[in-house]
Amino acid sequence: MTGEAALERRYRRLLAWYPAEYRHAYGEEMIGVLIAAASDGRKRPGLVGAFDLIRGGLRARLLAGWRTLADAGWPDALAVCSVAVPVILLGYLVSQWLFFLHLFVGSPHVEAGNALIVAAIVAPPLLALRLRRTAALVAFALAGWMTVYALGGISPDWSGYWIIYGLPVSASLALMLGAAGLGLSGGPRRAAEILTPRSWLVVIGAGITMGVIHPYLWSRPTWLAAVLVIGVLALVAAGLALTIPGPAARGLLLLSVVPAYPGAVWAIGISGSYGSDTSGFPSLVFLPTALFAGLAAAGLWQWRRSTAT
Amino acid sequence: MQEPTFMILTALADGAQHGYGIMTEVTRISRGRVRLRAGTLYAALDRLLSSETISVDREEIVDGRLRRYYRLTPSGVELLAAEASRLSANAKLATTRLRRLQGGALLAGGAA
């Protein structure tokens, strides 16, 4: 193998740091430039040149990821959330309502309380068909109420650590998404244009599934219940992503991470070695959160730098 | 505007250039102070193409390798002119003040 061929092979290996579409656009041209710029007889890329290519490749990957985020159909994804969130929660809550009716016959305040929750979840999307802004306000108030409920569950354990219960936090974040869908997108009307018959089947099927599995969840360990709920929601997100147009599907998949994240981390925590010792929860929850936040901040910084020309 | 970007646009102001041509021209016009490497050059070219500051002029195959020539777009010309004017005004201001400072120092030296 000649020196130039060996050098080209090594440069091609370094170009693997770049995303495929970038290599497709510039790869051959870059190889030509790299070979032309290399001194005669060189068989290996220099250290500084190799570092420059690796840095450029990582930067290009970060930018490609950011462009994917920027191009996701956020308003359409939110519009789908404005319908999917209430339908799925409704299935779960109606089942819970029937379950409690069965257990507490003759407890009017429990029945009234559950009926109120169901009505509060159903009302905003229906109201949104005529009065979208009012519906969004009602939905935000409901989501705020749920958040207060979720945070009200925070209490210090015997060793002084504060414990956050993941599922109520996930539910309140899902309601926030639904409310944002009513306020920041075309709401249910737009969702009706986007959702295909198959998407409707996925959404309604998810609501029914949540209702059907609810009595089963009641008698299972909490971590198993959480894993099952998150599993169903993951299937719904995947089902919707496969049945609605590309950009909105991408946005929806990314949005579904918002409510799924605290519930998933919590479920993993209570199913592992922390099951009985909850003192590890803060590091379990906050370390990955800090990692995600750091990655998001790095992406934002890189984007701002690149748009500064 | 970052200096490497300014230098790339300045190199293209003389006419269409291919990647290696831009690298050597930037080294030449900066008197060796700015040395672009391929990763940095193509990151800048990709960004400038996306913002339509430059465009592809033509492609050639030389010795079996692809050569793509880039040129400034009208908006690229405007951007470079605005940046050059800004840098020139800054340099003029700095020069004026330095002259005043040096003049003052000379006068103070003379008085002592």
Structural notes for this entry:
Chain A is mainly α and about 300 residues long. Chain A folds into two domains: about 5-70, no CATH class; about 75-305, no CATH class. In chain A, about 80% of the residues lie in helices and about 0% in strands. Chain A has helices at about 5-15, 20-35, 45-70, 75-105, 110-130, 130-150, 165-185, 185-195, 195-220, 220-245, 245-270, 280-305; strands spanning about 155, 160-165. In chain A, helix 10 packs antiparallel against helix 11 (about 245-270). The two termini of chain A are about 40 Å apart. The model of chain A has no long low-confidence stretch (mean pLDDT about 75). In chain B, about 65% of the residues lie in helices and about 15% in strands. Chain B has helices at about 5-10, 20-30, 40-50, 75-110, and strands at about 15-20, 55-60, 65-70. In chain B, strand 2 (about 55-60) and strand 3 (about 65-70) form a beta hairpin.
What is the name of the CATH topology of chain B? Arc Repressor Mutant, subunit A
Based on Cα principal axes, name the global outline of chain B. Answer: elongated
Which outline of chain A best applies? elongated
Order of helices and strands of chain B: HEHHEEH
Helix content of chain A: over 70%
The CATH H-level homologous superfamily of chain B? Winged helix-like DNA-binding domain superfamily/Winged helix DNA-binding domain
Which CATH first-tier class of chain B would you pick? Mainly Alpha
Number of domains of chain B: 1
What topology, given as strand order, has the largest sheet of chain A?
1-2
